[in-house]
Amino acid sequence: MTTTDSATASLTGDDVVLLDVTDRVATITINRPDARNALSSEVLAKIPEAMQRAERDADVDVMILTGTDPAFTAGLDLKELGSTGGNLDGSGADGSVNTHGVRGPFPKLTKPLIGAINGVAVTGGFELALNCDFLVASEHAKFGDTHARVGVMPGWGLTVLLPQAIGVRRAREMSFTGNFMLADEALRCGLVNHVVPHGELMAFTRQLAADIVGNEQDGVRQIRETYSAIATNDDDWETESRDGRAWRRSHFSPEKVAERRAKIQSRGQSQ
Protein backbone atom coordinates (compact mmCIF):
# COMPACT_ATOMS: atom_id res chain seq x y z
CA MET A 1 0.00 0.00 0.00
CA THR A 2 1.34 3.41 -0.93
CA THR A 3 0.35 6.13 1.50
CA THR A 4 1.29 9.68 2.34
CA ASP A 5 -0.25 9.62 5.82
CA SER A 6 1.08 7.36 8.56
CA ALA A 7 -2.42 7.28 10.09
CA THR A 8 -3.76 5.43 7.05
CA ALA A 9 -1.10 2.74 7.36
CA SER A 10 -3.10 1.04 10.13
CA LEU A 11 -5.58 -0.10 7.49
CA THR A 12 -3.88 -3.25 6.17
CA GLY A 13 -4.66 -5.90 3.61
CA ASP A 14 -6.42 -7.93 6.32
CA ASP A 15 -9.00 -5.22 7.00
CA VAL A 16 -12.57 -5.27 5.73
CA VAL A 17 -11.97 -1.76 4.35
CA LEU A 18 -8.68 -0.80 2.70
CA LEU A 19 -7.29 2.69 2.19
CA ASP A 20 -4.56 3.52 -0.32
CA VAL A 21 -3.28 7.03 -1.04
CA THR A 22 -1.32 7.47 -4.25
CA ASP A 23 -0.80 10.59 -6.39
CA ARG A 24 -3.28 12.62 -4.32
CA VAL A 25 -6.05 10.04 -4.83
CA ALA A 26 -7.43 7.99 -1.92
CA THR A 27 -8.85 4.63 -2.98
CA ILE A 28 -11.20 3.08 -0.43
CA THR A 29 -11.92 -0.60 -1.07
CA ILE A 30 -14.59 -2.72 0.61
CA ASN A 31 -12.73 -5.97 1.25
CA ARG A 32 -15.02 -8.88 2.14
CA PRO A 33 -14.91 -10.74 -1.19
CA ASP A 34 -16.09 -14.07 0.24
CA ALA A 35 -19.24 -12.30 1.46
CA ARG A 36 -19.62 -10.28 -1.76
CA ASN A 37 -18.52 -7.24 0.28
CA ALA A 38 -21.72 -7.34 2.34
CA LEU A 39 -22.16 -4.40 4.69
CA SER A 40 -21.62 -5.64 8.22
CA SER A 41 -21.53 -3.30 11.19
CA GLU A 42 -17.72 -3.38 10.99
CA VAL A 43 -17.69 -2.36 7.33
CA LEU A 44 -20.23 0.39 7.97
CA ALA A 45 -17.99 1.80 10.69
CA LYS A 46 -14.77 1.58 8.70
CA ILE A 47 -15.94 3.15 5.41
CA PRO A 48 -16.65 6.52 7.09
CA GLU A 49 -13.44 6.18 9.11
CA ALA A 50 -11.42 5.79 5.91
CA MET A 51 -13.27 8.68 4.27
CA GLN A 52 -12.62 10.95 7.22
CA ARG A 53 -8.92 10.12 7.11
CA ALA A 54 -8.84 10.96 3.42
CA GLU A 55 -10.85 14.13 4.05
CA ARG A 56 -8.33 15.29 6.67
CA ASP A 57 -5.27 14.34 4.61
CA ALA A 58 -3.81 17.43 2.94
CA ASP A 59 -2.23 15.13 0.34
CA VAL A 60 -5.62 13.87 -0.91
CA ASP A 61 -7.77 15.73 -3.44
CA VAL A 62 -10.09 12.98 -4.71
CA MET A 63 -11.55 9.74 -3.32
CA ILE A 64 -12.54 6.56 -5.14
CA LEU A 65 -14.87 3.97 -3.58
CA THR A 66 -14.77 0.42 -4.95
CA GLY A 67 -14.92 -3.23 -3.88
CA THR A 68 -12.66 -6.24 -4.02
CA ASP A 69 -13.82 -8.46 -6.91
CA PRO A 70 -16.24 -9.98 -7.64
CA ALA A 71 -18.68 -7.44 -6.12
CA PHE A 72 -18.94 -3.75 -5.36
CA THR A 73 -21.23 -4.65 -2.47
CA ALA A 74 -24.25 -6.92 -2.23
CA GLY A 75 -25.79 -4.60 0.36
CA LEU A 76 -26.49 -5.04 4.06
CA ASP A 77 -25.13 -8.29 5.46
CA LEU A 78 -28.30 -10.40 5.55
CA LYS A 79 -26.81 -12.81 8.08
CA GLU A 80 -26.36 -9.97 10.58
CA LEU A 81 -29.60 -8.27 9.55
CA GLY A 82 -31.49 -11.53 10.07
CA SER A 83 -29.99 -12.19 13.49
CA THR A 84 -29.69 -8.88 15.35
CA GLY A 85 -30.45 -6.18 12.78
CA GLY A 86 -27.44 -4.40 14.25
CA ASN A 87 -26.17 -3.11 10.91
CA LEU A 88 -29.17 -0.77 10.80
CA ASP A 89 -28.18 0.96 14.03
CA GLY A 90 -26.08 4.11 13.85
CA SER A 91 -25.39 3.77 10.14
CA GLY A 92 -28.34 5.87 8.99
CA ALA A 93 -29.62 2.89 6.99
CA ASP A 94 -32.90 3.15 8.90
CA GLY A 95 -33.44 6.73 7.67
CA SER A 96 -32.07 8.49 10.74
CA VAL A 97 -28.94 10.65 10.68
CA ASN A 98 -25.82 8.53 11.01
CA THR A 99 -23.28 8.74 13.82
CA HIS A 100 -21.60 11.62 11.95
CA GLY A 101 -24.80 13.68 12.01
CA VAL A 102 -25.42 13.29 8.28
CA ARG A 103 -28.22 11.60 6.34
CA GLY A 104 -26.83 8.90 4.09
CA PRO A 105 -24.03 6.36 4.51
CA PHE A 106 -21.06 8.75 4.52
CA PRO A 107 -19.70 11.53 6.73
CA LYS A 108 -19.70 15.13 5.51
CA LEU A 109 -17.24 15.36 2.61
CA THR A 110 -15.81 18.30 0.71
CA LYS A 111 -13.66 16.31 -1.73
CA PRO A 112 -15.07 14.59 -4.84
CA LEU A 113 -16.01 10.92 -4.44
CA ILE A 114 -16.07 8.67 -7.52
CA GLY A 115 -17.69 5.24 -7.39
CA ALA A 116 -15.81 2.56 -9.34
CA ILE A 117 -18.47 -0.14 -9.66
CA ASN A 118 -16.71 -3.43 -10.33
CA GLY A 119 -19.62 -5.83 -9.85
CA VAL A 120 -23.04 -6.01 -8.23
CA ALA A 121 -24.27 -2.97 -6.31
CA VAL A 122 -27.46 -4.11 -4.65
CA THR A 123 -29.92 -2.41 -2.26
CA GLY A 124 -27.75 -0.79 0.43
CA GLY A 125 -24.79 -1.21 -1.92
CA PHE A 126 -26.77 0.54 -4.63
CA GLU A 127 -27.41 3.38 -2.19
CA LEU A 128 -23.67 3.66 -1.49
CA ALA A 129 -23.12 4.04 -5.23
CA LEU A 130 -25.89 6.64 -5.57
CA ASN A 131 -24.30 8.75 -2.83
CA CYS A 132 -21.06 9.08 -4.83
CA ASP A 133 -20.62 12.19 -7.00
CA PHE A 134 -20.56 10.10 -10.17
CA LEU A 135 -19.98 6.50 -11.24
CA VAL A 136 -17.71 4.55 -13.54
CA ALA A 137 -18.84 0.98 -14.18
CA SER A 138 -17.08 -2.17 -15.22
CA GLU A 139 -18.82 -4.21 -17.88
CA HIS A 140 -19.57 -6.65 -15.02
CA ALA A 141 -21.52 -4.09 -12.99
CA LYS A 142 -25.15 -4.73 -12.05
CA PHE A 143 -27.47 -2.50 -10.05
CA GLY A 144 -30.54 -3.59 -8.11
CA ASP A 145 -32.98 -2.37 -5.47
CA THR A 146 -34.28 -5.31 -3.46
CA HIS A 147 -35.49 -3.44 -0.36
CA ALA A 148 -39.03 -4.74 -0.86
CA ARG A 149 -37.75 -8.28 -1.27
CA VAL A 150 -35.68 -8.11 1.92
CA GLY A 151 -38.39 -6.36 3.93
CA VAL A 152 -36.54 -3.15 4.74
CA MET A 153 -37.02 0.39 3.49
CA PRO A 154 -34.47 2.72 1.86
CA GLY A 155 -32.76 5.00 4.34
CA TRP A 156 -29.72 6.32 2.50
CA GLY A 157 -31.65 8.35 -0.04
CA LEU A 158 -32.47 5.82 -2.75
CA THR A 159 -36.00 7.14 -3.30
CA VAL A 160 -34.51 10.62 -3.74
CA LEU A 161 -31.29 9.89 -5.63
CA LEU A 162 -32.42 7.12 -7.99
CA PRO A 163 -35.22 9.17 -9.64
CA GLN A 164 -32.75 12.05 -10.01
CA ALA A 165 -30.41 9.72 -11.87
CA ILE A 166 -32.76 7.73 -14.14
CA GLY A 167 -36.24 9.25 -13.84
CA VAL A 168 -39.08 8.32 -11.55
CA ARG A 169 -40.71 5.70 -13.80
CA ARG A 170 -37.56 3.63 -14.24
CA ALA A 171 -36.84 4.06 -10.52
CA ARG A 172 -40.29 2.73 -9.62
CA GLU A 173 -39.81 -0.28 -11.88
CA MET A 174 -36.47 -1.14 -10.26
CA SER A 175 -37.87 -0.81 -6.73
CA PHE A 176 -41.16 -2.60 -7.39
CA THR A 177 -39.64 -5.58 -9.29
CA GLY A 178 -36.22 -5.92 -7.68
CA ASN A 179 -34.86 -6.67 -11.16
CA PHE A 180 -31.24 -5.84 -11.92
CA MET A 181 -30.04 -3.20 -14.37
CA LEU A 182 -26.93 -4.17 -16.32
CA ALA A 183 -24.04 -1.84 -17.06
CA ASP A 184 -25.00 -0.95 -20.63
CA GLU A 185 -28.54 -0.01 -19.65
CA ALA A 186 -27.19 1.96 -16.70
CA LEU A 187 -25.11 3.97 -19.16
CA ARG A 188 -28.07 4.60 -21.46
CA CYS A 189 -30.20 5.74 -18.50
CA GLY A 190 -27.56 8.11 -17.16
CA LEU A 191 -26.99 6.17 -13.95
CA VAL A 192 -23.28 5.78 -14.75
CA ASN A 193 -20.97 8.10 -16.67
CA HIS A 194 -18.83 5.42 -18.34
CA VAL A 195 -18.73 1.65 -18.86
CA VAL A 196 -15.26 0.19 -19.43
CA PRO A 197 -13.71 -3.29 -19.76
CA HIS A 198 -13.41 -4.84 -16.32
CA GLY A 199 -9.63 -4.93 -16.32
CA GLU A 200 -9.45 -1.22 -17.15
CA LEU A 201 -11.87 0.03 -14.49
CA MET A 202 -9.41 1.31 -11.91
CA ALA A 203 -6.94 2.76 -14.41
CA PHE A 204 -9.74 4.63 -16.17
CA THR A 205 -11.22 5.90 -12.90
CA ARG A 206 -7.82 7.00 -11.62
CA GLN A 207 -7.27 8.96 -14.82
CA LEU A 208 -10.53 10.83 -14.22
CA ALA A 209 -9.38 11.45 -10.66
CA ALA A 210 -6.05 12.76 -11.99
CA ASP A 211 -7.96 15.16 -14.24
CA ILE A 212 -9.70 16.51 -11.12
CA VAL A 213 -6.40 16.71 -9.22
CA GLY A 214 -5.04 18.91 -12.00
CA ASN A 215 -7.58 21.64 -11.23
CA GLU A 216 -7.62 24.33 -8.55
CA GLN A 217 -8.96 22.42 -5.56
CA ASP A 218 -10.74 25.23 -3.73
CA GLY A 219 -12.72 25.79 -6.92
CA VAL A 220 -13.51 22.09 -7.32
CA ARG A 221 -14.79 21.86 -3.75
CA GLN A 222 -16.92 24.97 -4.04
CA ILE A 223 -18.52 23.72 -7.27
CA ARG A 224 -19.15 20.36 -5.59
CA GLU A 225 -20.81 22.12 -2.65
CA THR A 226 -22.97 24.18 -5.00
CA TYR A 227 -24.11 21.09 -6.94
CA SER A 228 -24.93 19.39 -3.65
CA ALA A 229 -26.96 22.34 -2.37
CA ILE A 230 -28.96 22.51 -5.61
CA ALA A 231 -29.60 18.75 -5.84
CA THR A 232 -30.44 18.10 -2.18
CA ASN A 233 -34.09 18.36 -1.23
CA ASP A 234 -34.35 18.10 2.55
CA ASP A 235 -38.11 17.55 2.42
CA ASP A 236 -37.70 14.50 0.16
CA TRP A 237 -35.03 13.01 2.43
CA GLU A 238 -37.28 13.63 5.43
CA THR A 239 -40.18 11.82 3.72
CA GLU A 240 -38.00 8.76 3.10
CA SER A 241 -36.73 8.90 6.68
CA ARG A 242 -40.22 9.24 8.16
CA ASP A 243 -41.62 6.34 6.15
CA GLY A 244 -38.58 4.17 6.90
CA ARG A 245 -38.91 4.75 10.65
CA ALA A 246 -42.62 3.93 10.53
CA TRP A 247 -41.95 0.73 8.57
CA ARG A 248 -39.27 -0.40 11.01
CA ARG A 249 -41.62 0.10 13.95
CA SER A 250 -44.56 -1.73 12.40
CA HIS A 251 -43.16 -4.28 9.93
CA PHE A 252 -39.43 -5.00 10.24
CA SER A 253 -38.12 -7.96 12.18
CA PRO A 254 -34.81 -9.85 11.90
CA GLU A 255 -36.75 -13.11 11.96
CA LYS A 256 -38.62 -12.23 8.76
CA VAL A 257 -35.33 -11.34 7.04
CA ALA A 258 -33.84 -14.65 8.17
CA GLU A 259 -36.82 -16.53 6.72
CA ARG A 260 -36.43 -14.78 3.35
CA ARG A 261 -32.61 -14.94 3.21
CA ALA A 262 -32.16 -18.09 1.10
CA LYS A 263 -34.83 -17.04 -1.40
CA ILE A 264 -33.32 -13.54 -1.69
CA GLN A 265 -29.84 -14.92 -2.35
CA SER A 266 -31.12 -17.48 -4.86
CA ARG A 267 -33.04 -14.84 -6.84
CA GLY A 268 -30.02 -12.53 -6.86
CA GLN A 269 -27.71 -15.28 -8.14
CA SER A 270 -30.11 -16.11 -10.97
CA GLN A 271 -30.17 -12.57 -12.39
Short synopsis of the structure:
The chain is 44% helix and 14% strand.
Description:
This protein is of the alpha/beta class and about 270 residues long. Helix content is about 45%, strand content about 15%. It has eleven helices and nine strands. A six-stranded mixed beta sheet has the order 1-2-3-4-6-9, sandwiched between helices. Strands 5-7-8 form a three-stranded mixed beta sheet. Helix 2 links the parallel strand 3 and strand 4. It starts with 16 loop residues before the first strand and ends with a helix.
Keywords:
271 residues; 6-stranded mixed β-sheet; 3-stranded mixed β-sheet; 11 helices; globular; disordered N terminus
| Succession of helices and strands | EEHEHEEHEEHHHEHEHHHH
Number of strands: 9
The coarse overall form would be globular
Q: Measured on Cα atoms, how large is the radius of gyration? A: 17 Å
Strand order across the largest sheet = 1-2-3-4-6-9
Q: Name the structural class.
A: alpha/beta
What would the average pLDDT be, to the nearest integer?
88
User: What percentage of amino acids are in beta strands?
Assistant: 5-15%
User: What kind of oligomer do you see?
Assistant: single chain
- Are there runs of 5+ residues with pLDDT below 50, and where? 1-10
Provide the helix percentage: 40-55%
